[in-house]
Specification:
The complex is a heterodimer of chains A (115) and B (114). By secondary structure, chain A is mainly beta. Chain A has no helices and 11 strands. Chain A is 0% helix and 54% strand. In chain A, strands 2, 4, 5, 6, 9, 10 and 11 form a 7-stranded mixed β-sheet that branches. A 4-stranded antiparallel β-sheet of chain A has the order 1-3-8-7, with no helix packed on it. At the A-B interface, strand 5, strand 9 and strand 10 of A face strand 5, strand 6 and strand 10 of B.
Chain lengths: 115, 114
């Protein structure tokens, strides 16, 4: 298995532009997670899905952020409009299920820079 | 509220010496505990987990961790450090009734010198 796939790996954009990050979870995994990593705030869970349904989006910073999972093999995280403070590494992770004992497998991340 | 603390931002160890990366947690109910490692410009990789049973858990790359309920700790250990172990290590906790949500510590930078 190729593991969790994220694209793009790097994104540089200007303030106000729309940004879309993409994730393909490991085949057969039913839960998908979006995280943000910054030096200041560490690793933060933004949102997670189980069986394509959003379960907890309490970590989504504000209305500029939205996430979708139209099918079991694809998810997007969109920021519109983007701001410099959104600059971070965004990770997608997947696990077999949302059961507490299942470990999560992380993708390589998307490094976002908003100028 | 759940929380995880990694009291050391950085740990320095000489190659061949034992290493310990500390983690304490605060959670009501039964905790599920995890260690992950992050190499530069990479995603997090799962190392090991404690769910139930034996308090000493063995994981990848020769790492192990000991669950101590009375001290609410889950320290990561390795008997003999390698230079290639140098990375950022994260402890994480999940409560048994909260499904997928993992709470991560702030991370500990491990540096192993030859």
């Amino acid at each position: 298995d190729a593991g969790v796939i994220q694209s793009p790996r790097h994104e540089v954009t200007e303030m106000g532009q729309e940004v879309t990050l993409r994730c393909k979870p490991i085949s057969g995994h039913n839960s998908l997670f979006w995280y943000r990593q910054t030096m200041m705030r560490g690793l933060e869970l933004l949102i997670y899905f189980n069986n394509n349904v959003p379960i907890d989006d309490s970590g989504m910073p504000e209305d500029r952020f939205s996430a979708k999972m139209p099918n079991a093999s694809f998810s997007t995280l969109k920021i519109q409009p983007s701001e410099p403070r959104d600059s971070a590494v965004y990770f997608c992770a997947s696990s077999l299920s949302q059961s507490s004992y299942n470990e999560q497998f992380f993708g390589p991340g998307t490094r976002l820079t908003v100028l | 509220a759940q929380s995880v603390a990694q009291p050391e931002d950085q740990v320095n160890v000489a190659e061949g010496n034992p290493l310990t990366v500390k983690c304490t947690y605060s959670v009501s109910g039964n905790p599920y505990l995890f260690w992950y490692v992050q190499y530069p410009n990479r995603g997090l990789q799962f190392l090991l987990k404690y769910i139930t049973g034996d308090n000493l858990v063995k994981g990848s790359y020769g790492f192990e961790a000991e669950f101590n309920k009375s001290q609410t700790s889950f320290h990561l250990k390795k008997p003999s450090a390698l230079v290639s172990d140098s990375a950022l290590y994260f402890c994480a906790v999940r409560r048994d009734d909260q499904g997928g949500k993992l709470i991560f510590g702030q991370g500990t930078e491990l540096s192993v010198k030859p």
